[in-house]
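User: Show me a protein chain along with its predicted structure.
Assistant: Here is one chain, sequence first, then structure tokens.
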Amino acid sequence: MYYFDTIGAVDVIRFNKLWHTFLLENLAVVRTFAEHNFALYVQARNPNTPGVVRKLRAPTTRQLTAARKFWTFVRAELYTSGRHEHFRDIYSNYPLADEFTIDHFLPWSFVVHDLLWNLVPVAQPTNSSKSDALPDLDLYLPRLAKLHFAAIESAKTRSKLLEDYIDCFKRSPGELLALGEVGLFALYREVMLPQSQIAMNQGFEFGWKLRL
């Protein structure tokens, strides 16, 4: 692929022209191979950091279309069943109208994913205020679990919508509902507390509270 050469008193490395042509023609394959092995190297040495592969080449846009559809569906179900009081901004604790935005409870720049168990509907001012901060877990984690319990209950007959929960908590929708709000909150603590600590260690602002 390369060889050493000397030009006058200068030692140089020359690149084989045939290899140069080959690599250019197969650049996508070569780059993928290199990034995959680099990701394995980095992940092995940083086992407590989530999303290493995604962070090497983070998406330029967040894929929240499915999340918006999910929470719109949940809102409609809650209103139909007379439980609209459950559809609230977990930070302000105010009811949400049909205009809402999607917030990453653990910051997107930390988790680098758009999985439903970490997403909540909030008012736009709330989302702007929170930015990439870690919310106060003592105050907001119980509200997060309560809202998601209502969401799981609303979509219990549509398991396809709940795959993110199944993958995260390793339980079926029926098993999650059988745990009740208290049980789901316990599962959320098991998931959120370690990841929040890692994010804090990496310098993310923590203990954020919404100023009303």
